């Protein structure tokens, strides 16, 4: 049985994952409207992944005798100065999510809930991957600068990054 404190902390994380899904969905829609199909595909795919992160937590809380509460979500930003800035915001967002997972893991230790501690290791590993992915993308963007041909190739390549990360996620499960 989850302690009340841990149940509340897990519910907070459920909200953060749901908001992450909305953040990526909003980025996907912005990119699609700008004609950046590859980037849009990357963001749509990532939005689905975030929903999966959220669902996994919902199921876990309910299985452990808690109640996963579905709450209202903060509206994501809908406009971005440029795709470069959008990816920088994505990276900062993932750092924020990693910090919140770390805080959650800390609560499991305080509450001596080793089952939840173990369950959350998947999220710890996932955050490492997500931060690495975001950094890889930012490195590529820095290489392009303002070159239009580079942007064309990036928009094409970023879909490969989606496919690769999806493949390694599946292999890791
Ligand atoms: Fe759920 O990992 Fe990104 O935010």
From TrEMBL:
UniProt: Fe cation binding residues: 17, 50, 53, 94, 127
Lineage: Bacteria, Pseudomonadati, Bacteroidota, Flavobacteriia, Flavobacteriales
Domain Ferritin-like diiron: 1-145
Enzyme Commission number(s): 1.16.3.2
Protein name, per record: Ferritin
Task of the protein: Iron-storage protein. May alleviate iron toxicity in the presence of oxygen.
One Gene Ontology term, aspect cellular component: cytoplasm
GO annotation, biological process: intracellular iron ion homeostasis; iron ion transport
Reaction(s) this enzyme catalyzes, per UniProt: 4 Fe(2+) + O2 + 6 H2O = 4 iron(III) oxide-hydroxide + 12 H(+)
Subcellular location: Cytoplasm
Pfam families per UniProt: Ferritin
SUPFAM superfamilies listed in its UniProt record: Ferritin-like
Key word Iron present: yes
UniProt GO molecular function: ferric iron binding; ferrous iron binding; identical protein binding; oxidoreductase activity
Enzyme class: oxidoreductase
